[in-house]
Amino acid sequence: MMFFLEVLIGGLLAGVMYALVALGFVLIFKASGIFNFAQAAMVLFAAMFMGGMHNDWGLPYWLAIPITLVIMIGVAWVIERVVLRPMVNQEPIILFMSTIGIFFALIGFAEIFWGSRSRTLDVGIPSDPIFLGDMLLQSYDLITAAIVAALVVGLVFFSQKTRMGRVLRAVADDHQAAQSVGIKLSTVWVVVWSIAGLVAVVAGIVWGGALGVQPVMVDVAFKALPVLLLGGLTSIPGAIVAGLIIGAGEALAEVYLGPIIGGGIDSWFAYIIAMAFMVWRPEGLFGEKIIERI
Amino acid sequence: MVATVSDLTPREQESEVLLKVENVELRFGGVRALHDVGFEIRKGQIFSIIGPNGAGKSSMLNCINGFYHPTSGTLTYKGQPRKHMRPYVTASQGIARTFQNIALFKGMSTLDNIMTGRHLKTKASLLENAFWFGRARREELEHRRFCEEIIDFLNLQHVRKTPVGTLPYGLQKRVELGRALAAEPELLLLDEPMAGMNLEEKQDMARFILDVNDEYGTTICLIEHDIGVVMDLSDRIVVLDHGEKIGEGTPREVSNDPKVIEAYLGVQEQESA
Amino acid sequence: MIYRESGQFKKTYQADQAILPLRQDRIFLILVLLVAFLVIPFTASNYVMNSLLLPFLIYSLAAIGLNILVGYCGQISLGTGGFMAVGAFAAWNLAIRTDLPMPVIFVLAGLITSGAGVLFGLPALRIKGFYLAVTTLAAQFFLVWLLQRPWFNNYSASGVISAPDFHMFGWSIETVTDRYYLSLIILVVMALLAKNLVRSATGRKWMAIRDMDVAAEIIGIRPMPTKLKAFAVSSFFIGIAGVLWAFLYLGQLEADAFNIYTSFDVLFMVIIGGLGSILGCFLGAAFVVLVPIFLNIIPSALGLPLSTAMISYIEVFIFGSLIIFFLIVEPHGMARLWSIAKQKLRLWPFPY
Hints:
The complex is a heterotrimer.
Chain A: H1 2-32, H2 39-55, H3 61-84, H4 92-114, E1 129-132, E2 135-138, H5 139-161, H6 163-173, H7 175-180, H8 185-211, H9 217-221, H10 224-231, H11 236-261, H12 269-280
Antiparallel strand pairs in A: 1-2
Helix pairs in contact in A: 1-5, 1-8, 1-10, 1-11, 2-3, 2-4, 2-8, 3-8, 5-6, 5-8, 10-11, 10-12
Chain B: H1 10-14, E1 17-28, E2 31-42, E3 46-50, H2 57-64, E4 72-77, E5 80-82, H3 87-92, E6 95-98, H4 110-117, H5 126-131, H6 135-153, H7 169-182, E7 187-191, H8 199-216, E8 219-223, H9 227-233, E9 236-241, E10 244-249, H10 251-256, H11 258-264, H12 266-272
Parallel strand pairs in B: 3-8, 3-9, 6-7, 7-8
Antiparallel strand pairs in B: 1-2, 1-4, 4-5, 9-10
Helix pairs in contact in B: 4-7, 6-7, 11-12
Chain C: H1 13-16, H2 23-43, H3 46-72, H4 80-97, H5 102-121, H6 129-147, E1 161-162, E2 166-168, E3 171-173, H7 176-199, H8 201-211, H9 213-218, H10 223-250, E4 252-253, H11 260-273, H12 278-301, H13 308-329, H14 333-347
Antiparallel strand pairs in C: 1-4, 2-3
Helix pairs in contact in C: 3-7, 3-10, 3-11, 3-12, 4-5, 4-6, 4-10, 5-10, 7-8, 7-10, 8-10, 11-12, 12-13, 12-14
């Protein structure tokens, strides 16, 4: 029983990290209807710049992190200019494929700049074992969960209480109506992609701290895709809940199912959960119902 | 206001009922799009549905070709009552349609669009198509011949191989009509075939509709806002307002019906009151 | 002046429906085939055949398969690598476990891949677009995992197994020239089949679903069988490409060799070459095979040799940027650029 709980909690905490990547997807999808495949690449990109600036240039983290944030805003601006603006009114599937292009362009750029060697990214989150009764937990995981919770609260506050937040919600509701009341879409998109960049920086710190910064990080982020579908593309709570479900399900499956059907099932288990769920409810847990019109 | 048989011309009385709509009700959640609508379309008629914006005309058409399923009521097509049907089933029973907002296959040429309309008449299997063998080769030629007739009929020769996405609006509407005709339908549903056209294009389209009705004997069910066109073309008209039928009859009867005039020119009623 | 259609009147619909209605195009194709069959095998070095031409031929075949699904039917797939693996492992297991003749094994391997394709295509009936992309990723990860189970490599210790020697119609495939010829013949035949399919009623149905599925349904096209057929045909092509990749190019099998990045490579070929164009598949495959080589040659020629690692980084960046470029500027890819060039050539040298 104790063992089960430990596995479960370990899985839930891994799920928090999936949710963190999925959160970036949801923000962009809500505001612009674009399924941003490149979100995972943005995480790697941010992590490589932070790790590179600290390790290779010797910058302290309190400098490297803000600089990376500025770079991410620059990336958002370039993406808006070079990709989104010329692609207005294209079909969603074409936009999706173009984000696959962004995915590789970002990774390629970061690699040209920093190479592909592995770096550490330790911003000083303590990693000590904590005993909760008989249960063994890592302080790193708990602090991570707290950071994510703070980020979500911050985002909700931003979207409910600030002017820019209201603008974003208006755009998410109806592009044309928002434009007609004088909202400039290009600005909104730069803001949204910058926020997704901020989320990517946080995810980069958390992921990089746990696993080190290296290009294979991006493979782990592939897991955020099923989380996203399970949660529903437009729902922030959905992303969190689905992240937890998939993190826990995956950990339990690896431990209890793995010995029976063979190890390494975590590479696809999340996808199968999401697929099975979607056949039943295509819009995901909290997503908006897809209505067909003609 | 339900029409009696005596309203029909002798030719129409002889022809059989192709589609009978009875007490059709359509709801989307709390919104009632259609309420207790009923009418009959007879073989060979040009039948029009008119009414102000939001009267439920397109919803009615969508029910007929199976895109929406009526909440209650029945549709009887060729003597067969039906309730739930997918659009491809109604298509296979001989119902074709065009759309208010053109629904062409934009990446394909005019010819390919019209050839696609022949879909239900093709039987060649995947393998025959891959090896371009047997029925595949034969059918391709037969259908090409048929489609070229339609292209000639609609005067589309000059844009035969142009992708339809690049054609002007009026021509796209014509290609869409061509695609519907290619299926050799028994009942052709036209949803505002003349919307957004100039006078000349409207005249062309009206001529095409009359010719189709005349030459192929196709029954036509039409939605149109241009009352002049409707009065000229139709054998019979049904008028909808707020999802309910408020009048039916020949163009002359409908244009003299006080309830119809009221629906269209509501101001008058206020003035007289 | 050379590329002119004047004077070539088509008197029958048959002539107008030919694959290449213009005489110049036919002559050009015959020349290309003559060079491919009679000149290249006697002039190209083993290195060129093995490292350039074989991957080019096999990638072209896979790209045709993917283009049928993405370019013609509008259903995106990121599972190409996984399906290639299915084809390769199906053929290998049939070869060591049965006595069937090799041509039969090839076809069966293709059909088994079709089955897998249809299975993972089933969600396409309820979901669309990027949702589908994610379920095909599921196919990618699941299939590669499944094929790593010991039964599939006959309990080999290392998980890497070598492809069997084989012969077809009494022709034993040994030298690189043999392997080149076999790939070429299979590619030519299958490209012709694909071309026939996409210009037939089947192809029009796929394109109708791609362009507007609701309207397609209303003219009587049933979405379910149409989409599943596209998945089946596409996977068949990809499965055969997987067999060739393992048997003729690598000479060995390893499920990991068909990873997610294989899927992306083939998708790049399709986008860069041109969505919805068979010719584009060849151009795209050639491009993806040649770029690393040019990156090797050009900087060294300029006196700035790059490290292998740097070349691969630049490659990733260039492909990513080109995807964006082509999707914005010319969604029909290099195939469209080619046909624009032909249009110009038609009028040259008197453009007015």
